[in-house]
Amino acid sequence: KMMLTLLHIPPLPINSPSSPPPRRRRCPPPMAAFASAPQQSKPLVLGCGAVSVDYLATVASFPNPDDKIRSLALKVEGGGNAGNALTGAARLGLSPRIISKASNDALGKSILKELQDDGVDTSYMTVADGGNSPFTYIIVDNQTKTRTCIHTPGYPPMKPEELTKENLFAALHGVEMVYFDVRLHETALLVAEEASQRKIPILVDAEKKREGLDDLLNFASYVVCSAKFPQAWTGASSTPVALVHMLLRLPNLKFVIVTRGEKGCLMLERSMTDASETEETDVEDLLESLEQKVDLSSSMAKCVASKSNLRISADGVGSMSGRLIMGTAEDIPSEELIDTTGAGDAFIGAVLYGKHTTS
Prior knowledge:
Elements: E1 6-8, H1 31-36, E2 44-48, E3 52-59, E4 68-70, E5 73-79, H2 81-92, E6 95-99, E7 101-103, H3 106-117, E8 126-128, E9 135-141, E10 146-152, H4 165-172, E11 177-180, H5 185-197, E12 202-206, H6 213-217, E13 222-225, H7 229-234, H8 239-249, E14 255-259, E15 265-270, E16 280-282, H9 283-291, E17 303-305, E18 310-314, E19 318-327, H10 343-358
Parallel strand pairs: 1-4, 2-6, 2-11, 3-9, 7-8, 11-12, 12-13, 13-14, 16-18
Antiparallel strand pairs: 3-5, 9-10, 14-15, 15-19, 17-19, 18-19
Helix pairs in contact: 2-10
Keywords: Kinase, Transferase
Family: Belongs to the carbohydrate kinase PfkB family.
Protein name: Carbohydrate kinase PfkB domain-containing protein
């Protein structure tokens, strides 16, 4: 039996005078960081990946099959992993460029304008005659503060030959870092190969297993993972063990970060010098020791780091030289939470900015 859920959404077309102007969603990194971003310096970062228009319908609770419910609110905003992350980077003070594709329909024009208004250079995007631009229906559960995404890809899809060598070289000129969300993977691989030849650092968003991800990870200098990815990719028994596995499996990798929602994040960083003569420290014991240093009475986000240049080991995996860093998340009252849409993308935007300020 086919089950059908109907969600009634008030009619708010994207260009309707009664609808709020489309805005790329607010970024979770501390707003003080946006306010204090240095405006005199505009380092270049290039991103390659997804852009879209998102229709976010907030509901009291997620519907059951065959339910017919009404939305509490509807927002029409720019989206897509790369679009979100680069918008965050632009607001923090970087000068992002993007390689992606849209159509010359109303949604595509909205995507381009919004990115441009936020300071993202769209000169290297492909705009197709005909077809449709990407868009996503997002159901925001007001009860659990979670979201469910139903994505419709753009058509026709981007082909690698649509990125000419001339545009590729121009897009990479002066760039200090390249970022991939692993969409448009064939085009992304061309960009990664050229960036690698130019010794430009590469950051990969490992949200989940995707076609082309393994090829891009081989070029990665830095990886940011979703909570479930490290174990899914390595088959390791725990997240800390999986992080060690990733650094051993990917010799070009300088650090890997895994985001953990309300628990914050973990970062395993490779040392520049070898600590093979140092006594080994089990990575799970090391994480436990960091957790014990956290002041649970404080609601503010904190960063706790191990000593640098430890010999960190994982049973059945091996050992590497580096340090483990744990970042906690701010304890935000539930009534202040909106939803988690774009949180990981905003985190990556902040990492792109952070790499610039610490390089």
